[in-house]
Records
---
Amino acid sequence: MPTHTLPNPQAFPKDFVFGAATSAYQIEGAVHADGRGLSMWDSFAHHSGRIADGSTGDVACDHYHRMESDVALIQSLGHTAYRFSVAWPRVLPTGRGAVNTRGLDFYDRLVDQLLARGITPYATLYHWDLPLTLHEQGGWLHRDTCRAFADFAEVVARRLGDRVHSYATLNEPRCSATVGYLEGRHAPGLQDRGMALQAAHHLLLAHGLAVPALRAHTRSAQVGVVLDVKPYYAADSGADTAHTVQMADGVFNRWFLDPLFKGHYPQDVWVAEQGHQPLVQDGDLATICQPLDALGLNYYTRGHVVHDATLPFPHARELPVAGASYTTMGWEVFAEGLRQMLVRIHQEYAPQRLYVAENGAALDDSVVDGRVHDPLRVRYLQEHLQACAQALAQGVPLQAWLGWSLMDNYEWGKGYTQRFGLCHVDYATQTRTPKDSALWLRDFIAQHARAR
Ligand code: IFM
């Protein structure tokens, strides 16, 4: 018998959608097919020496060649929504200029396939695969990249239009900026605090410029952005730790939420970042703070921290929590944090709608006699869907839950060492095997449909 409360399908509104998410570089492979240009991730994966297993996304899940059967798989799992990303270098091989029609055709077909199978498309425009040419011209440190992104958004919206239900400009600008330009674990592999904040500002500005470009070519499609969010908790009662918790929240969450929804950077963090603050031109914050139809949240874990002056700002040392479960990413399973973030963001920022754009667990899965038993992931899904149900009961306008990920895939700097999928992928044969968690979710979605 489970020791946790199971989510009730009836707690979710009739039009609530359940599905899964992926991103282009993590699943598509086919990096040289049909005129695709290179991205900074192609270069980073091949040359940086920073991928745990030395792998690349060259083949990944070969989704580019298996798209139709993958969409059939999505349908067979009962999903009513699917979130994918459009690879910028497939559509504009050098980031701007002439459109590579064959690349754009792929997403056109993908959307048609989804709609034909009754699956609602959610499209993300930037999931980290910056065209290499733009990176070589300065990438996110260069202001011109923002305009190039808005032009790319326009090209995509002009073709896909309202067939896409929900567009997100960016996936996790926090991660792009911090992990790519400060920690150096992701492309482009830089380690500079000022650069990270400048990249973050330009990502936000790119978002702000892309929103009107998307709206110009859509009427009913929702336009928004996807942020990764993480609540921070003090692991001791000291005043220094309380301050670190506030700053960690500021750096991770408010640095992005405040400009997007309030039109300013958080003052406490701005002051603390003295010497590293980004160059912000007049009018930038007004451009960034666009009315949005929906905000997507990616939620995985919380931070349980103490102040440690030997670490760089915000001096947060993560401590393990006794008795807690951890995924193979080393992330604590903490579903209550999802409820708290949903309620808090609804109350403090009041986005028109919210959706969970990613949520899931990496575990050590294997196929045994054609089955993948992943009880920890089943429990993870149950606890996090229960957190969503609680948030709905507290008045949060939540419209969708999308699991990360449809299938095991290329986990960036960790290569293929992490399995986040609802479906197991055998990379030698490209066989997809739905895990027990996918089957549990399928039955849960079916119960939701019947109850309504
Ligand atoms: O795989 C990533 C995804 O690309 C962005 N959000 C977090 C996931 C797990 O690390």
Note: The CA atoms of residues 247 and 313 lie 8 Å apart.
---
Amino acid sequence: MKNIAIFASGSGTNAENIARYFAGSKTVNVAVVLSNNKKVKVHERVNRLGIPSFAFTRDEFAEGKPVIDKLAGYKVDLIVLAGFMNKIPDTLLKAFPGKIINIHPALLPKYGGKGMYGMHVHEAVTGAGEKESGITIHYINEQYDEGEIIFQATCPVLPSDAPEDVAAKVHALEYEHYPPVIERLLTGR
Ligand code: GAR
């Protein structure tokens, strides 16, 4: 059994979707969810499914050790960022080399980097008159949104689309593709 930890900062619909996908799996277990905010909805979403969740302060995340110790307690094989808005500190990168992945709500290398998260991304995409957007699943390295790309999928952007419309299309792609990509990475299937 491979254990994953999901990091999420907000609503956590992706975290819940991943947890539901692996509920009952014999190969992948969502062991724990970590957040940088104790008040956000992701806790309720995953606790309902029997998955423990914890919140760490910005300083604890930046230091790394409290987070690494918590992950060690769950024998985590892969860290899955799903709407996690904090930078991953070097200590955590070194403790989990090549074992941290992220989903970005656009087609990297476009619309990545500092400040490009959540609705800001979709506002930039519609503002630039792009004809398509999508998702990028990638490894995390020291730079924002620059790690090796694992998977991309696209969706059309219509001239009449508001940022919220693009967000809905991108979320649908995330729900469809993130869990099976995680499964493939961990099991080769
Ligand atoms: C998702 O669209 C995810 O791709 C994005 O935040 C949203 C979280 O939604 N992540 C980033 O922008 C990271 N740079 P959720 O909380 O409902 O899963």
Note: The chain has two domains: 1-97, 102-178.
---
Amino acid sequence: MKRTTVKKALSLKAGEELVNLKGWVRTKRGSKHVSFIALNDGSTINNIQVVAEDAISEEVLKIIHTGASLSVVGKLVQSQGSGQAIELLAESIEVLGIADPDEYPLQPKKHSLEFLRENAHLRFRTNTFSAIFRIRHAMTFAVHSFFNSKGFSNIHTPIITGSDCEGAGEMFAVSTLDKKNTPLTEEGDIDYTQDFFGKETNLTVSGQLEAEMAALALGKVYTFGPTFRAENSNTSRHLAEFWMIEPEVAFADLEEDMDLAEEMLQYLCTYALENCTDDLDFLDKRLFEEEKNKKKEERQELGLIEKIKFVAENDFERITYTEAYDILRNSKPNKKKKFQYLIEEWGTDFQSEHERYLVEKKFKKPVIITDYPKDIKAFYMRMNDDGKTVRAMDVLFPGIGEIIGGSQREERLDVLKSRMAEMDVLEHELSWYLDSRKFGSVPHSGFGLGFERLILFVTGMGNIRDVIPFPRTPNNADF
Ligand code: ATP
Ligand code: MN
């Protein structure tokens, strides 16, 4: 018999024909003559209630516990109880796999997120994590759908990179050299000519530089791949391995870049609202319960769904770094020395406390900050006429801080070369990149969206370790 998913079954009407459902037991309760089994197969957050009466032997029922996997054949009937319209009256149950209740870590009670992180291989089986990962899938699909509908080509940029100057943080080395007997040069350095690629290589921190090459021929491209950063920043917003979406558009200036970023984020929010209703309802209630445990002044004003709607429907605020600097310098928390890092000199980078002040207190909506001081941004960002700032933009989100970083790229060969010299980026290592400015150079722009930061926002979760299946962070690469 062909398997029917729980999602499908719950949408059907009661009927006489037999159906076969398979899934995992969430809970089992009952009396001598009837057992109620909540069965979930991951197709939806909702369980189907399996009713096992006399047709099912005592021996079978005895070995059914939370976590066991079952194949159930029966009829869909009108539910007697409240809470569901339809239930499955079992005619036969096959136990596919038992789960010993003395050993199975997930019991039908609330587990802490920390505990579930230590059991990341099993946490998919909880309501919260199955909801998160269905939404993560929906967002992946929506990203491709958005760019496809706008005529972008998806480009797979390399994961192993030979350039160590991508300018976005510390890298992980990739090498096959014998660690106990590393070949050395006469000067005593590691002899990478004997390594797999004949040179030093690392895991990529960004696909941007390669994506630019593609954009300068295909017009509109985007990457969606894993990126790696060996920063020892143990925060709730950083992973050592994360996924990034990086569009790159030829002939686009920073205004168009910001428009694209805003349109994309609003599209993704709308997509979630329209396509992840059950999972969002569940997470909305979950967040509401969490907030109740917080002090009043620390509670979020909007619920999860309200927050997503708000972003989908309202224009983002756009201000320059200098405007933001003025606001922050004159702000109450700065004057009262409440910020951990006080805003004094023009030119320093904003910390997450400053970004959150602007988004959550000052403007109460997403904010795009543009035209940052050149010294705190990468070499490839386009220099403004003032000689002090570059055409960069960061999109800041409530509860998250920076979700996107982007810029108009420097298309003028001489300016790019002098910026590289200023920032100690070696020309000979990036000769291929410079070629794009020698041959048919055009203005172009792009940005990077941290996929997990987006998922944090859409699920209302507080820790980035909970929105990627198997997180990689300092001292943590289990599973
Ligand atoms: P941050 O200042 O938050 O550390 P960044 O400025 O170093 O980020 P970019 O190099 O601009 O980040 O990368 C583009 C986007 O990738 C960021 O806006 C963010 O959404 C995401 N991102 C960056 N670093 C991480 C990380 N370690 N883990 C998860 N997402 C990240
Ligand atoms: Mn950034």
Note: The longest helix spans residues 127-149.
